[in-house]
Design a protein that fits this description.
About 65% of the residues lie in helices and about 10% in strands. By secondary structure, it is mainly alpha-helical.
């Protein structure tokens, strides 16, 4: 059949994205044909980037589950019963996924970092001081600062300083 070296598949609304990295043009053509035969969308990867492509899939899929679990744990620690916490997080996360269907990340980003609300971020960090999740909050918060296009230079700098603080 086909010598298959396609990477991870991302499933979208209609078609699956097939990441293709081939050693020669003939193989690439076969893989493109195979992806289309499977009603997929072929994406020719830059040479040597298959691992990066796979890491992106892991971050979007597996780490979304990790974020859900961390958030669920924090809500339960705050006293929200598991079924209510799970339902609330499902609605919140689904709303974000729905927004990302039509908006770019900087347009879909909400919350205290998008608003430049330094006081709230400080309170969050204090609340997470004894938690295993403070480092996760800091790392993801710093990534959010990078995305938040509406922040003034002053707010951006203050948030960097707060989030990168050891």
């Amino acid at each position: 059949m086909y010598p298959f070296r396609a990477g991870t598949r991302f499933q979208g609304d209609e078609q699956i994205l097939f990441g293709i990295e081939a050693s020669d043009t003939a193989l690439e053509t076969q893989l493109i044909d195979l992806a289309r035969h499977l009603d997929g969308t072929p994406a020719i990867l830059n040479p040597g980037s298959k691992t990066q492509y796979h890491a992106a899939a892991v971050m979007a899929s597996n780490y979304l589950v990790v974020l859900f679990a961390a958030s669920l744990n924090l809500l339960q620690s705050a006293g929200v019963p598991a079924p209510q916490a799970q339902a609330a997080l499902n609605r919140l996360m689904q709303g974000n996924v729905d927004n990302l269907r039509t908006l770019l990340p900087d347009q879909a980003l909400t919350g205290p970092i998008a608003r430049g609300d330094i006081a709230t971020v400080e309170r969050h960090l204090q609340a997470l001081e004894e938690s295993d999740y403070q480092n996760l909050y800091r790392v993801l918060g710093e990534a959010a600062v990078q995305i938040a296009s509406q922040l003034s230079a002053e707010k951006r700098q203050a948030l960097h300083k707060l989030l990168l603080k050891d």
